[in-house]
Amino acid sequence: MEMRPFQRGVLGPSTLLPEAGHRGELQAILSSSMAASLAGLFLLMFLLFLLFILACRPWRFVNRRRSSTSPFFKVDDIEQPLFAENSVDTSEQCNNLARNFVEESNIQIDGNTSSPKTVGVVGNINSNRKHGFAIKKRVSTNFQVGAGDCLVLDVITDASDNLRVGQTLKRLAAQSLPCEGTKHIRWEDSSYDSKIIGDNGRTQISTLKDIAILRSSINLEVIAGPSAGLHCSRYSKDSTALPLTLGRVSPSDLILKDSEVSGKHALINWNVLKSKWELVDLGSLNGTFLNSKAIHHLDVGSRSRSEPFELSSGDLISLGSYSKISVQIVQDVEYELPFGVGIACDPMAMRRGGKKLPMEDMCYCRWPLPGIEQFGFFSIFDGHGGAGAARAASKLLPQIIVNILSNPEKKQRVITCCDASDVLKEAFSLTEAALNHQYEGCTATVLLLWFDYDEEMFVQCANVGDSACILDANGRQITMTEDHRVTSISERTRLSKAGMPLKEGETRLYGLNLGRMLGDKFLKEQDRRFSAEPYVSQVVHITKGRTAFGLIASDGLWDVISTKQAVQLVIQYVQTKERYEVPSENSAERVANYVLSEARTLKTKDNTSVIFLDFDLMRIDYRKHN
Asked: Who contacts 257 (Cβ-Cβ below 8 Å, separation ≥6)?
């Protein structure tokens, strides 16, 4: 049988291929593998190079050089305001707002209270009083400032969340820094600042002497960012506390936990020859800006001091990209106070797992009340659901008391009968009626202080909520407030008498732990157990021969410290560090800050405000007189 041509073929690799063919194939395979490996290595190196470039950001130096030397940089870009477009002419707006507020209603309240901010009423340094504090009254801004003037600043911080501790970050470019809404925050939202404001004219109290000294004060307040709530103040006459330094680390006077703020960033000092406050950059890495204009040296790598730049009321200072400072210059005429006053506040902003807490405490203190020269007003309002109700109440309630006491018959009745119960109850009632906050509320603790015609001092307190006030007179502790938390015995008794007892184990009403407050209109419409009726204390007579002090604080303090412990803290501090025999201008302020620091040490988780009243000064004067 004849076979076809392909039937004899064997499929598969030929056994007849020479050995050289195998070697060629192996070499080709090795060459292709090596080429692929080299290509992968080059690709990996290129990616690492890109990551290195992104991490180093060398273009920032180019941007800085262009921003400082470019001929196309417009003047308008430098001088543009630090606010949003809808905030036109904000500098004038802020000044006019402050001016109208003081001149028309004669009340000054600044929004929140912070690290701790400490606001003290500082007295006459030249006075023979050992704890003389001062009342300030506003002077026309066209008055020629003297050598004893001072200035007020507010710090606004808006720091990034993803920053490492201890690192000074370099900003991307030295451009105009936006500051939308800062003025609005200062006057409308910030509530970390309360001042003692003097009234025009002489008082009827012989212990208040018109010393006719013009001065001003510096107040730095951090109201946003990681250092929200920090507050620092200085006075032009207090040369030992000047210059005021700003930085990220100690020993700066105001320490800002902002990674773009240098260790020693800038300073503010009083120029005696010019009677002006001046700002100096200390060679900071990220620069200092005054109204968006760079005052630091624009040369890359230059770390030398800048020339001093004069500050004016309404200026804004920016440290790096985030921290911002609002500048307010206040010229005051001092009047000597017969007692010391110290105020300290802290939002405790980082206590809840890094969550930033808004400052909802409001403090308002005034001696004397405008037109009511024998009366003073000291108060704390602790808001919940927002700061709106507390802010409104802190403006309304003192003005309503002024209106009530402007009635000669009511004022005379208080002085003659030594009882202001009716005035306080009426003021709380009218304040509650005027508030229109449906979902916001606040506590209110008010200490009314007055002198009779024999120059004897009396105090009486009214409150709703859980911000407490205590007095210590000759070692005897007097509780001036009542606890209105739902868990308190007094509040459960009130509800039971009203025929609306709480259920067993019930500790809150509609999520609130308070039974009495101002505001919260929606809740009061839903449940009649909520009330705004205040508790009014008995009148306490503070004589000149007694050792006495008062302490008002929000629940941030009382959550971690009992009233007995607070009294012991004050006594301990006075005995060990603040001897009353040693003249001190800010003793009351230091005591308030010491009590606040103890609450911080005990890790309180709520906004904390403290007002300390030092009546012991009257005892010192009494000894001198005798």
From this structure: 159, 226, 227, 248
554, two tokens:
């929000």
CA dihedral 332→334→339→341, nearest 10 degrees, is 20
Burial of 161 (0-12, 13-18, 19+ CB in 10 A): exposed
What is the value of pTM for the model shown? 0.53
Q: Give per-residue pLDDT as tens, 54-93.
A: 877 777 665 544 444 444 434 333 333 333 333 334 344 4
Burial of 170 (0-12, 13-18, 19+ CB in 10 A): middle
Can you tell me the mean pLDDT for 487-501? 89
pLDDT confidence of residue 465: 96
Q: For residues 340 and 323, what is the distance between their CA atoms, to the nearest angstrom?
A: 33
H/E stretch holding 326: strand 323-328
Q: Give whole-number Cα distances, 82 to 183, 253, 359, 500, in Å.
A: 9, 26, 24, 54
What b/e readout covers 275-287, taking b as 16+ CB neighbours within 10 angstroms? bbbbbbbbbbbbb
Contacts of 270 (CB under 8 A, 6+ apart): 149, 150, 151, 236, 239, 242, 276, 277, 278
> Per CATH, the architecture of 90-160+176-481+537-625 is what?
4-Layer Sandwich (3.60)
Q: How wide is the angle at C-alpha 62 spanned by C-alphas 57 and 66, nearest 5°?
A: 145
pLDDT tens digit string along 247-284? 999 888 888 888 888 999 999 998 877 778 889 999 99
Strand, coil or helix: what is 179?
A: coil
Instruction: Round to the nearest angstrom and report the end-to-end CA distance of the chain.
Output: 153
From residue 429, alpha-carbon distances to 293, 509, 517, 520 in Å are: 50, 22, 11, 14
Task: For the beta carbon of residue 119, count every other beta carbon within 10 angstroms.
Answer: 29
